[in-house]
Amino acid sequence: ANDAVIAIEKQFRDLPNPHEREFLELRSQLEAMQAAYMDLQAEHSDLQATFEQEREEADAMRTQLQEQIATGNQAWDQVDDLVQLNKTDFFNHTQGIVQAKMLAHGLKVRVRAASKELEDPSSSAS
Predict the structure, then answer these.
(1) What is the C-alpha separation between 13 and 72, in angstroms, rounded?
(2) Is residue 85 within 8 Å of residue 78, measured between CB atoms?
(3) Alpha-carbon gap, residue 41 to 34, rounded angstroms
(4) Per-residue pLDDT of the chain (126 residues; tens, 9 = 90+)
(5) Separation of alpha carbons 32 and 29, rounded Å
């Protein structure tokens, strides 16, 4: 009887495990999932590094543009100051020309009057 039990036990152990194929499939799926997870981690790390680099470049570009805007504003203010100065100079220059013409006209009138007096002294006595 003991030999029979040992023989039955040996036959039982020699039987294929009904869950072994399912276990091997699950192990294969787990290994594939782990490999995919590692790929995703590597891709995430690459994307994160690219994102950080692009953010740094964008920050540098933003700073450069802000500096250019500030420089442009300063240049615009200087141009505006020059325009205002030129308007003032133009006004002063034009006003000076008008005054000079008025003085010249007044002088011309006096010269004509003096010349008429020299020609006809009796006209001024009347």
Answers:
(1) 88
(2) no
(3) 10
(4) 788 888 888 888 887 777 888 888 999 999 999 999 999 999 999 999 999 999 999 999 999 989 998 888 888 888 777 767 666 666 666 777 777 778 778 788 888 777 777 676 565 554
(5) 5
